[in-house]
Write a structure and sequence with these properties.
This protein has six helices and 18 strands. By secondary structure, the protein is of the alpha+beta class. The chain has a nine-stranded mixed sheet with strand order 3-2-1-13-10-9-16-4-5, covered by helices on one side. Strand 1 and strand 2 form a beta hairpin. The longest helix is centred in the first third of the chain and has 9 residues.
């Protein structure tokens, strides 16, 4: 099942993608794709619905982030061996945790704004994991039962802010529009194996990233269990699980985003994002 949010920024409505690729309105069933609506019992009720019985949403619609009211936007760094190598960094012994500000969240096809003082704005296709139930001290064996679903995330990063402006990575990760999420949330029962999903990213038609979640250093279950030892997770929290090689910082010469560029990225079964890059 594919859940989504559509409409103007800040006024998105909940929807469901039917088998023909049409948006069906869910406003009469849930208020948002957020919070309690992501719990198992709610997902089960949504799955029991006949999509064709729901109102059809006409016309072209802007898609918002597929999850609303995100409490925490947690990211895992250096989680692919080949990406760590291209970054010149050693693989960590434990998952590297950092946060993106929730104000960075945007729709999957919204414009990406280059910050005014940016010199190294970069791209990162990542598997997003959306938590579906209260999670604390969960075991690795039970961790995936706490997932509502999966989605595409572009973990955009300003490398100069991130690495050379003192402090933690959050500076380079939290710029406005640096967190496109979606196009839809695919519920966990429709993702047979989150560790076997092909993923890619292109800029101006050139494929820079071409990888798979199978090369993660720490798999999704390990990441969720690890995080839950340090903080509780709530329905609607988003975890971005790291990126395969091919980021701009890893190119020779280094290559970064500029106004006028177009980014396309996708993950097998989870959809595609397309963003135009503009000056902030």
């Amino acid at each position: 099942m594919k859940l989504l949010r559509y409409g103007e920024r800040g006024a998105e409505k909940p929807g469901l993608l039917d088998q023909d690729g049409n948006i069906r309105e869910l406003s009469g069933v849930i208020s948002d794709v957020a919070g309690d609506a992501l719990k198992d019992e709610s997902i089960a009720k949504l799955r029991d619905l006949d999509p064709m019985s729901l109102p059809l949403v006409e016309g072209n619609q802007r898609l918002g982030a597929c999850v609303g009211q995100v409490g925490k936007f947690i990211c895992i760094g250096l989680n692919y061996a080949d990406h760590a190598a291209e970054s010149g960094m050693a693989l960590p012994h434990e998952p590297v945790i950092f946060f993106k500000a929730t104000s960075a969240i945007s729709g999957p096809d919204d414009d990406v704004e280059i910050p005014r003082t940016s010199v190294k704005s970069d791209w990162e296709v990542e598997l997003g994991v959306v938590i579906g139930k209260d999670t604390k001290y969960v075991s690795k064996e039970e961790a995936l039962d706490h997932v509502a679903g999966y989605c595409v995330v572009n973990d955009l990063s300003e490398r100069d802010f991130q690495l050379h402006r003192s402090g933690q990575w959050v500076k380079g990760k939290s710029c406005d529009t640096f967190g496109p999420i979606g196009p839809w949330l695919v519920t966990r029962d429709d993702v047979a194996d989150p560790q076997n999903l092909a993923m890619y990213l292109e800029v101006n038609g050139h494929r820079y990233q071409d990888g798979s979640t199978k090369t993660m250093h720490f798999d999704v279950a390990t990441v969720i269990s690890h995080l839950s030892q340090f903080m509780s997770l709530q329905p609607g929290d988003v975890i971005s699980t790291g990126t395969p090689p091919g980021v701009g910082m890893g190119q020779s010469p280094e290559t970064y985003l500029k106004p006028g560029d177009t980014i396309e990225l996708g993950i097998e079964g989870l959809g595609v994002q397309t963003q135009n890059v503009v000056a902030g």
